[in-house]
Amino acid sequence: MTLINGQVTPKITLHQGEVLRWRLVNATPFRTLNLKLGTLALNEIAVDGMYLGTVDIWPAGKALTLQPGNRSDVLVQAPANCSNNQCPPINLTNNDNEVIATVEFVAGGNPMPLPTSAEMAPLKTWNNIDTSLVYTSEPAQFQEENCNVQDDMCINGITFNADTVTKLPLNKTQLWNLWTLDKDHVFHIHVNPFQTVRTGPDGGQETVWMDTMLVPKGSTQDKPVQAWTTYENIPGKAVFHCHILPHEDDGMMHAIQIE
Ligand SMILES: [Cu+2]
């Protein structure tokens, strides 16, 4: 069961024609959410707290996917013109078959337009990195077995300990090569987000900034998931880990030192 703000299947009321900003957080310990909002589009403006600089329109029927730890800011525009001024209620669903909220519409709203991508462009949080200027690259192999601590999980063969630290360069671009030896895992890094490429709502490849992303089963050392970061101004120690809670609790975490 998926709760929203601690509530079981809450009823959300929107005024006809109004635009609401929903700040979605997948706060589940280990479940991927595939969200659809009935007949309405999810107009995504930010991922993991960072503005895309565009409006990514996930149309009705196309799921917006959030891994554990992912955030997404979406604009929802309630329908303005319904017959007899009665817009039928819709459901917010996960994986098509789980209703996690019902949405109803009432008259008396203040109709608003959605922002355009051109209007969102100046808000883009991070400028894209020139990925041809990679200074160092680091591997991160997620594995549930054959770690240095028996029965624990690990990254690059080492179960988390605070004294095993990977040094990352300050003010230079670093590439992550990420893969898994077994199941899906979710790469999450503290302090600094990364640039990566995802499949956008139109099916095309899209450069985005995130701090949490899937490392899918099937990724390999030869075919890794890639992410780029330039650590600009926050030197010091931090961690990255799998954001599937039982995995990080089992040692699938690694310390980094930016200097
Ligand atoms: Cu994991």
- Looking at the overall shape, the CATH architecture of the largest domain is Sandwich
Question: What is the arithmetic mean of pLDDT?
Answer: 96
Distance between the termini: 43 Å
Distinct ligands: copper (II) ion
Order of helices and strands: EEEEEEEEEHEEEEEEEEEEHE
Main sheet record: 5 strands, mixed
Low-confidence segments, given as residue ranges, are: none
Q: What form results from the Cα inertia axes?
A: globular
Structural notes for this entry:
- This protein has helices at residues 117-120, 245-249; strands at residues 11-15, 19-25, 33-37, 42-47, 50-58, 64-66, 71-77, 90-94, 98-106, 134-143, 154-155, 165-168, 173-180, 185-189, 194-199, 205-210, 212-215, 225-230, 236-242, 253-258.
- The radius of gyration is 20 Å and the shape is globular.
- It contains 2 helices and 20 strands.
- The strands form 5 sheets. The chain has a 5-stranded mixed sheet with strand order 1-9-8-3-6, with no helix packed on it. The protein has a 5-stranded mixed sheet with strand order 12-20-19-14-17.
- The chain folds into 2 domains: 11-122, Immunoglobulin-like, CATH 2.60.40; 134-258, Cupredoxins -  blue copper proteins (Immunoglobulin-like, Sandwich).
- Copper (II) ion binds at residues 142, 185, 242, 244, 247, 252.
- Copper (II) ion is lined by residues 142, 185, 242, 244, 247, 252.
Describe the secondary-structure layout:
Elements: E1 11-15, E2 19-25, E3 33-37, E4 42-47, E5 50-58, E6 64-66, E7 71-77, E8 90-94, E9 98-106, H1 117-120, E10 134-143, E11 154-155, E12 165-168, E13 173-180, E14 185-189, E15 194-199, E16 205-210, E17 212-215, E18 225-230, E19 236-242, H2 245-249, E20 253-258
Parallel strand pairs: 1-9, 10-13, 12-20
Antiparallel strand pairs: 2-7, 3-6, 3-8, 4-5, 4-7, 8-9, 10-11, 13-18, 14-17, 14-19, 15-16, 19-20
The chain binds copper (II) ion (CU).
